[in-house]
Amino acid sequence: MTGITKDHPRYESLITREKIVEGVNMGITSKQGLVAQGRGEAFDYILGEKTIESAAIAERAAVAYILLAKNPIISVNGNTGALVPDQLVSLADITGARLEVNLFHRSDARVHKITEHLKAHGAGVVLGGKGDKRLDLSHDRAIVDEEGIFSADVVLVPLEDGDRCQKLVEMGKTVITIDLNPLSRTSLTSTVTIVDNVTRALNNMIQFTKDMKGGSKDSLQAVIDAYDNDRVISDALYSMQEHLKNKAEEKGITWI
Ligand code: PTJ
């Protein structure tokens, strides 16, 4: 890993970048994952590299959906496996959700490596290796486990491209996404759209689960009933615009 000291102004961002590079070196992350990370970094810069209030609202709604679900699944790809393995395992443990490796650039070797990586970080059962069902999609993200994503009622799909998300919604599932691009196909088709960095979002969701887990089913349902996803997306766009405006004015540039 490149020598990055904590006093570097872009420490968090650089460490995240290093983890993705390490993921590629370990055979967990695809090379395309590097490009996806760069895109995410750009959106995060525009957002202000913080969890905005509407994202926290979406994260609480996501936790409520997962806690009320019968068969919740957390989908893991090469980017999230490299960036947040501990948080994925903790969130699964604390909510009772199961982890399933599901890849766009699928190979058996990479499914195996990500599975072993999650296990090394404390995961028990990791689904995704069987691949005994197909979603109606033309690429390899269609390959899922029957007892996992195929039969799930709630699926958390952090960081992906959009057509699987759409397919899962068409199948009647609740789909929760974490995507820094509020206008991606994934963001626009999900039930709950979390516009936040996966590195912050999962930590928040773990904390919210601890806060909300003891609550009644009615109180969790009330969180869901009050949730408005269009408003959350709209607020993310507004927050990005405001952040850019403030940043420009700080630097003496007139916002027209
Ligand atoms: O491991 P695989 O084979 O399943 O491939 C995974 C990637 C991510 C390469 C694949 O799903 C892909 O190509 O995704 P896209 O189409 O690049 O979409 C990724 C989305 O996630 C983009 O909208 C990015 O802005 C966003 N994103 C990238 N990094 C982060 C992020 N969102 C949240 N947190 C991030 N750290």
TrEMBL record:
GO biological process assignments: coenzyme A biosynthetic process
Species of origin: Methanolobus mangrovi
Keywords carried by this UniProt record: ATP-binding, Coenzyme A biosynthesis, Ligase, Nucleotide-binding
Function, in words: Catalyzes the condensation of (R)-4-phosphopantoate and beta-alanine to 4'-phosphopantothenate in the CoA biosynthesis pathway.
PANTHER family per the UniProt record, alphabetical: 4-PHOSPHOPANTOATE--BETA-ALANINE LIGASE
Pathway: Cofactor biosynthesis; coenzyme A biosynthesis
EC number of this enzyme: 6.3.2.36
Lineage: Archaea, Methanobacteriati, Methanobacteriota, Stenosarchaea group, Methanomicrobia
InterPro entries: PPS/PS, PPS/PS_sf
Pfam family, one: PPS_PS
Keyword Nucleotide-binding: yes
Binding site residues for ATP: R17, R39, D179, L180, N181, R185, T186, N197, V198
Domain of life according to the entry: Archaea
Record field: catalytic activity: (R)-4-phosphopantoate + beta-alanine + ATP = (R)-4'-phosphopantothenate + AMP + diphosphate + H(+)
Keyword DNA-binding belongs to the record: no
The protein's name in its UniProt record: 4-phosphopantoate--beta-alanine ligase
Family designation: Belongs to the archaeal phosphopantothenate synthetase family.
A GO MF label: acid-amino acid ligase activity
Assembly mode: Homodimer.
